[in-house]
Amino acid sequence: MNKQFHTVKGILVNRELTDIKFACDLNRCKGACCTLESEYGAPLRKEEIPLMQEALPEVLPYLPEEHRKAIEQNGFFEVKDNEYLTRSLNERACLFVFYDEFKIARCAIEKAFFDGKVSFRKPVSCHLFPIRISDFGGDILRYERFKDCQPALENGIKENVTIAEFCKDSLVRNYGEKWYNELEKKANE
Question: What gap in Å lies between CA 177 and CA 76, rounded to an integer?
């Protein structure tokens, strides 16, 4: 058995997810994961696109004018290297970013979800962050290191929360409660 991974119902989970302490500290990072400098936006599943399209009329009012115009002109997603991705503004902020009163980057889709206006929370890849899914004939879950997440590592130690615990809602959303419980069990062995 590979000691670097847990195997949970056929899914490989890097042990870093159950060992490394992590809990976002938005007051310090300011939502940096939504404003990564990159030519690539957040990964999307093809089946998420119509859900996002359906939510768009309720989401647009939350967005800055520049983001709304970019979506109206070019749409909210693109395909690069056969991957569906959100578009970003100036290869920086996701088009679904708005800034709250504390200048923290937030997801307008998620805001509309919590305001009860849409049923789609946000793309799974965003909800899972800092967990990334690689597909090598099956899902492999890994921790994506990002220097702007240093406050989350410090906060995770303070709060005594692992990456998997921090991402419980998104892991349950993606794999189910029974799967998550099995992951917890394996992490405690």
Answer: 31
